[in-house]
Design goal:
The complex is a heterodimer of chains A (about 450) and B (about 625). By secondary structure, chain A is an alpha/beta fold. Chain A has two domains: about 120 residues, Gyrase A, domain 2, CATH 3.30.1360.120; about 290 residues, Rossmann fold (3-Layer(aba) Sandwich). Chain A contains 15 helices and 13 strands. In chain A, the strands form two sheets. Chain A has a seven-stranded mixed beta sheet. In chain A, α7 packs across α8, α7 packs antiparallel against α13 and α13 packs antiparallel against α14. About 10% of the residues of chain A have low confidence. Chain B has about 625 residues and is α+β, with helices and mostly antiparallel strands. In chain B, a hairpin with a 2-residue loop joins β12 and β13. Chain B starts with a strand and ends with a helix. The chains are: A alpha/beta (about 450), B alpha+beta (about 625). Chains A and B meet through α3, α5, α6, α14 and α15 of A and α17 and α20 of B.
Chain lengths: ~450, ~625
């Protein structure tokens, strides 16, 4: 019996096709809730056959291939499902995230290979060079994890871990020293667990952050006709492939695109109405723009730097002024008219687009989320699991015996400490002896 | 004078007797040496066996076919079950033991065992043939030839006892110490360290005012340590509880300059979990009082053990502080408390079979391995004895995993993590605490003990019976139903639900205790009480246990993967430098153990796995 592990098994970013691989007992069940095809049932899936269908992962939908390998005839020797997806990170990560939310666990570096070995699946020739790959992979991951942890998240995890150590010690000291512990530590344990719950929830649970992680941040572009909204949109999407195309226009390609800025999904929409040339269009346009801005996390207010400021532009700006926004003076490549702006860019030449991206990241508060996907997934998975365990512990505090409650608290602690490489058990023992006067 | 044995066990303390008994039972001609025949299985400190985590160890020793449980049951004069409020997983049996009786019974058990000789000898040198053990030499120059040796020197190697400004180069309780062996081990490059522990004073019973203390009686109807123990415990001795007070603390604090622990006279590393009273008072200044348990040393003596006042303060200070305690104001001390320093091995010198790395046939167990406690010592002695016997038979060593037993956790912690203080077993060290219970120790280990050849037919038959009963009970519980009305008649509230009947399994999961269920189903009286506890607890914990199961399954694939002893980590490409160093130092026996070394990560383990597979294929 082995649990399901999941990972993106292709190199990040560059490839046209990326693969999400799942291995372990129960992959079919998880896969059946991600991959759909008319008249197709996972239970009856033929092994080694390429199925073309659709993946649905959160808000993301895309055409994809899916292959099922039946144990033991697979890379790992276990049941394996592979999704072959359009390259780029958005779909790939959404599929991975969904698999994790359905019970898979993020694979450790080299874990697929390890399973292949344990199950006797790899021949000598196949093994050549694999060590180096794993080592390199793990170095890169370790470096990435280190970077990711060298900040706010790391601090939070350490602080929360510390509280969990104290909570576990509070429970365990009663179990290891029942005769000497006269005071009831439970009230303080509950207090600590509540604090942990709040911190962890804040870390993953607030509406805003959950949205950022699962649906992405919504950013709208507003501006007058010919301000260069569509070229700005194309420039922002740039090398990033546009993946999800919901409404295709006739003259312009896209009204909404999902892209990624600093590792966070961003749904970028153009406020379509304003460009319509019909009578009274500007008025309707302004109303629509206002509406769109109200529903978004951030507005990009685009001004045409080649033209002088107009009354309509001012009127439009008034409407969005109080919402989070960035003022962009576009067409910076032309000697034009000054504006009060946060950044001057040229969508045409790409000038200052990186500055704009950084501004978007800053304004949406996604600065801290710049770690690569697998590392971030593992962190998210660990934090989610920890929160889950803490909730269970709090729920059972009154009804279950302390040995059981402690099991949940420790699981939470181990999940967090696995991220920072601390020894959970030893920390608890240290805490017991430093805080409580026990021992005869 | 020349003697020849299959194996020699150096030291007849709690580790030594288990090692010797196991070797002899496994048909090895064994010599058990001791500095004094009066010191065989001597309980140098507290007069009890068991307690939290330690009770589990005793049950496990017994389940494998060891001797501690059997003798502890015979010598027990009072028993209690600790931790009832903590949950079944941590229920811990503890017995007050008659020290002299324990020593006499164990000595007799050794003397009467087949294949086993007991002899006073001061062993101070190991003899090797290459890297193989060939025997030992005693201080008088006698040679004892043996192909395997188990070193169980406890706190006796180069030991020194200290009370205030007084010190003596001696073992505990005036027994002679071992001189020379420590030097000899150092000569072979072994890492010898200095640890410290201590013991409180003993006082005369007739000088104690018991009516001023709280009585701590024993409990009736408790299970025993030994699966094969038939009789009930005597429970005819009481313990008492009293407390230190502000005056006691004042006396201690005003004499700290005379305390060897604080004036620099003791440099050995002492255990945090067994602090001296001076340490407790200094470290926890806010605590107004500390508990003191007054416990009988036995039934043939009038000495009482003052649990909680472990100290190395000078004699006059010991008297002053003792007399400040309620109930002890006129108490007369028979033996003063002392600290003891001793030489021991860095347990990182050992492999998971308790073999000393770099040698063949050489094992060590007990306090020499950096542990503390009778039970911890006995557990290691048993494993070292088994593995010495298996070595002589050319068999693979027995390695107990962390999910199998507290013994496995104990040994894995010692040899994989090492320890910087005398190591005490604690339930919080066991990540699989909910499965490692007293009530299922035999279910977990007796099959193994039988395979090894230690658990005999009688024990095995009893284990099979219990196992079958547990299975039958679980079966019955899942099908036997009670209606809502019957339940409310029995005083069980089922709450607001549309369900009209409940299976016993459901009731247990809802928190209904086994005692209530026993009353509802009279037939259950014919089952073994421990089978009932085991079945009910398995059901109650099933959610947690299945979580543990998954983790165990995951880990067992690596725990089952052996690493050859002669592996050259320098030849393994792709290992990080830190991992290479740590692996080279610990030399783990399995991939699972490798992964638990701090500084070795998951990728390193995979790299190692690939290397091993390649090696196997080529």
């Amino acid at each position: 019996m082995s649990d399901v592990i999941a990972a993106i098994s292709t190199a990040r970013g560059s490839a046209a096709v990326s693969i999400v691989r799942l291995s372990g007992d129960g992959v079919k069940e998880i896969a059946s809730r991600i991959f759909f095809k008319k008249g197709f049932e996972f239970e009856l899936a033929e092994a080694n056959r390429l199925y073309l269908g659709e993946v649905k992962a959160g808000m993301v939908k895309d055409r994809a291939f899916c292959v099922y390998y039946r144990a033991p005839k697979s890379y790992t020797g276990e049941d394996v499902v592979e999704f072959q997806l359009h390259g780029g990170r958005v779909v790939t990560e959404a599929v991975l995230e969904t698999a994790l939310s359905l019970g898979a666990r993020p694979a450790m570096p080299g874990e697929f290979t390890r399973r292949a070995y344990l199950n006797g699946k790899m021949s000598l020739s196949e093994a050549e060079g694999v060590e180096a790959l794993i080592a390199a992979d793990s170095e890169a991951e370790a470096a990435a994890a280190y970077r990711a942890l060298d900040g706010e998240l790391d601090k939070k995890i350490r602080e929360t871990g510390e509280l969990l150590v104290q909570a576990t010690a509070g429970l365990d000291v009663m179990l290891d020293y029942p005769e000497e512990m006269i005071e009831d530590t439970r009230p303080s344990v509950v207090e600590k667990l509540e604090a942990v719950k709040n911190t962890l929830s804040a870390l993953i649970g607030t509406e805003r952050e959950r949205k950022m992680l699962s649906e992405g941040i919504s950013v709208v572009i507003v501006g007058l006709v010919n301000a260069g909204k569509s070229s700005l949109m194309n420039a922002l999407c740039g090398a990033e492939r546009a993946i999800v195309t919901e409404f295709a226009g006739t003259t312009r390609d896209v009204l909404r695109e999902t892209l990624e800025i600093n590792g966070v999904k961003v749904t970028l929409s153009d406020t379509a109405g304003i460009r319509e040339g019909a009578e009274g269009a500007e008025k309707i346009g302004i109303e629509r723009a206002e509406k769109a801005v109200n529903g978004a996390d951030l507005a990009l207010f685009v001004m045409d730097g080649s033209e002088p400021e107009s009354g309509e532009e001012r009127e439009l700006y008034e409407k969005i002024r109080l919402r989070p926004h960035i003022r962009i003076r576009n067409k910076g490549d032309i000697d034009g008219y000054p504006r009060e702006a946060d950044v001057t860019v040229s969508a045409l030449t790409g000038e200052n687009m990186d500055v704009l991206r950084a501004l978007v990241a800053e304004k949406t508060g996604i600065k801290a989320m710049t770690s690569p996907p697998l590392v971030r997934q593992r962190q998210l998975h660990a934090v989610t699991k920890a929160l889950d365990c803490v909730r269970t512990a709090l729920r059972d505090m009154e009804t279950a015996t302390p040995d059981c409650v402690s099991a949940d608290v420790k699981e939470a602690l181990e999940a967090l400490y696995s991220l920072i490489g601390e020894d959970a058990a030893e920390s608890v023992v240290d805490e017991i002896f430093s805080k409580f006067c026990v021992g005869k | 004078m020349m003697k020849r044995y299959d194996a020699v066990v150096i030291g007849a303390g709690h580790a030594g007797v288990e090692a010797a008994a196991a070797l002899a039972k496994l048909n090895k001609k064994t010599l058990l040496t001791t500095l004094s025949a009066e010191a065989v299985a001597f309980m140098a400190c507290n007069p009890n066996i068991g307690g939290t985590a330690k009770g589990h160890l005793v049950k496990e020793i017994d389940a494998l076919g060891g001797v501690m449980g059997e003798i502890a049951d015979k010598a027990a004069i009072q028993v209690r079950m600790l931790n009832r409020a903590g949950g079944e997983a941590v229920h811990s049996l503890r017995a007050q033991v008659d020290k002299n009786l324990y020593h006499r019974l164990m000595k007799q058990r050794m003397e009467s065992a087949e294949n086993l000789d007991v002899m006073e000898a001061d062993v101070n040198e190991l003899i090797f043939d290459g890297d193989r053990v060939a025997g030992v030499r005693t201080a008088v120059g006698d040679v004892i030839y043996a192909d395997a040796a188990v070193i169980c020197t406890g706190v006796y190697m180069d030991s020194r006892i200290i009370t205030g400004g007084y010190e003596r180069a001696t073992g505990p309780a005036g027994f002679m110490r071992s001189v020379g062996l420590s030097e000899n081990l150092k000569r072979y490059g072994l890492d010898i360290r200095r640890f410290k522990t201590g013991t409180p004073m003993r006082v005369l019973s007739k000088t104690i005012d018991y009516e001023e203390m709280e009585l701590q009686p024993g409990e009736e109807g408790l299970p025993r340590f030994g699966m094969l123990t038939e009789n009930a415990v005597r429970n005819d001795c009481a313990c008492y509880l009293t407390y230190t007070n502000a005056e006691t603390h004042r006396i201690i604090l005003s004499n700290l300059d005379r305390a060897p622990l604080y004036n620099g006279n003791i440099s050995g590393i002492g255990p945090r979990y067994c602090p001296s009273i001076e340490t407790k008072v200094v470290r926890f200044k806010d605590k107004e009082r500390h508990q003191i348990f007054v416990e009988p040393e036995g039934t043939d003596t009038c000495e009482m053990y003052i649990q909680g006042l472990s100290t190395s303060l000078p004699f006059d200070v010991q008297e002053q502080m003792l007399h400040s305690v309620k109930g002890l104001t006129r108490a007369k001390i028979t033996r003063y408390g002392y600290a003891i320093e001793y030489d021991c091995l860095n347990p990182k010198c050992l492999n998971a079979a308790l073999g000393i790395k770099g040698f063949k046939g050489l094992y060590s167990a007990g306090q020499i391995n950096g542990s503390s406690g009778y039970e911890e010592a006995a557990a290691q002695g048993l494993v070292a004895g088994i593995n010495a016997a298996r070595y002589l038979d050319g068999k693979e060593p027995l390695i107990l995993t962390r999910d199998s037993s507290y013994i496995g956790v104990l040994i894995d912690d010692l040899v994989t993590k090492g320890t910087e203080e005398p190591y005490r077993m604690m339930t919080s060290r066991a990540e699989y605490r909910l499965r490692l219970r007293q009530d299922n120790a035999d279910i977990r280990l007796t099959e193994l003990g039988y395979e090894i050849g230690l658990a005999d037919e009688k024990r095995y038959a009893k284990y099979l019976k219990k196992k079958a009963e547990v299975a039958a009970l679980k079966d019955t519980f899942s099908s036997l139903r009670f209606g809502k009305k019957d339940l409310s008649n029995a005083g069980i509230e089922t709450g607001d639900t549309l369900k009209t009947s409940f299976t016993v399994t459901e009731l247990i999961k809802m928190g209904v205790g086994i005692d209530i269920i026993k009353n509802m189903i009279p037939e259950l009286a014919s089952y073994m009480p421990e089978a009932l506890t085991c079945a009910a607890t398995d059901i109650k914990y099933s959610g947690y246990l299945s979580k543990e199961d998954r983790r165990v399954a995951e880990e067992s694939r690596l725990n089952d993967y052996a690493i050859p002893a002669d592996i050259d980590y320098g030849a393994v490409e792709g290992l990080r430098i830190e991992a290479r160093e740590k692996l080279g130092e610990i030399r783990p026996m399995t991939l699972g153990q490798a992964g638990r070394i701090s500084g070795v990560n998951s990728a390193d383990v995979t790299v190692l796995l690939i290397y091993l597979r390649k090696k196997r294929q080529s």
